[in-house]
Specification:
With 474 residues, the chain is of the alpha+beta class. The chain is 19% helix and 32% strand. The strands form 5 sheets. Strands 17-18-20-19-21-22-23-24 form an 8-stranded mixed sheet, sandwiched between helices. Helix 4 packs across helix 5.
Length: 474
Amino acid sequence: MKRGLDPRVEYERIQLPEVQTFSGSEYALLVLTDVRTEFRVFIAPVADAAANKARWVAVAGFEDEITDVAIDGGVLWLLANKNHPRGRILKTSVAAPSVATATEVVPEGAVVIQRFQRARDGLYLDMMDGGISRLRLLRRDGQVSEIALPFDGTLRALHGSPDEEGALFSFTGWLAPGDIWSADADGKVAATGLTPPPPIDVRPYEAKRFFATARDGTQIPYTLIYRKGLRRDGRTPAWISAYGSYGIPAYTPTFAGRILALIDAGFIVGYANVRGGGEYGREWHKGGQLMNKPNTWRDLIDVCEELCAKKYTSRSRLAIGGRSAGGITVGRAMTERPELFAAVIDGVGWSNPLRYVAEPNGYGEEPEWGRISEEAGYRALKLIDSYQHVKDGTAYPAVLLTTGVTDPRVGPFHVAKMTARLQAASSSGKPVLLRVDFDAGHGIGSTRAQQDREAADTYAFLLWQTGVRAYQPA
């Protein structure tokens, strides 16, 4: 669907067209997406689309905040978020689709509806509850039932078929290796065993979920993973990671894997579900976006303050980490409260957003961060720019910044400039190091060996800078 093929369908340079077809339907959908979770929707007969002569009819615009869509027989199903930030399910006729007159089938509730998959027995609903996945079934008779999952975990890749009952999905937890699971209409779930579990004994560990009270009273969920028998005396080193961008629920339960090596060396490893993500829907996202972005790094700060107050760790033992847009979170937490942390890990981090126009992924990010050509966008970008907030003569913590030379998402100049600025500005005498992988990019395509090497360097830096005795230079 190239630009100009249908003069009634105009879209901006940052939007990507996608034509979707559905088994058994004579209609196709044209979906226009960008960095936002919502998208535009058009409809036309499949035959016309295949012949490049479709006259696409608009169904929904970005302003309708549609985040999932499917055709099922004569029904067009929509996941709509406008004025309903945790989502609701609507249905309308394929022959005369209209968001305005669509029928509400599943109203907004306390749990976020993330997406759905159709099956012969109904729509399976992928739900999100503050970072924990839930699963429900909208039956053909309109009733909604809960499908109990075996543990608090993360559900991904939900798949159903209109010709079969039930659904398949990937499911994992902090201490539960991932597998493909099945669910049926009776509410029974079972692991298929298609993914053999690794030979790791997880019995010595535990993962616990807590809530910290942010300075404005908001409850911020976070999880700690550690070896059983932990003594809360403030002497245990801790590494807390956060993200908080794009409305993405980040750091949801995922099998700990290699991070157990750091825990075995004496660490607490934690993850904070800060605002800016999607753990509680669109309000949670908007609560950490644009001029509300300080909530993102201050949520992380407030979680860390609670950990120190409860003597899980102490400032001299506390480290934070973030990757990609999480570089904003840790960079601004560090520049705002440098005395709170012993070490910071900034992986392929967005450190200098004011220069986003200099990178290939830049303009596509404007809906999330603002346009530098507009005053409001400039102010929002400067607010989150860690490089601009480094102050000379400040005692900054030890910092390890990492990048891949071929990174197309966050240009290497971000962490390179941040490294040089911190080295020149810091008065603490603590190391500020830049790790460069000349055969890597943003990390998505890194091999397991590359990931292992970066993890080993990161863990060594953390153990060194949090004062773990066995890892100090001779």
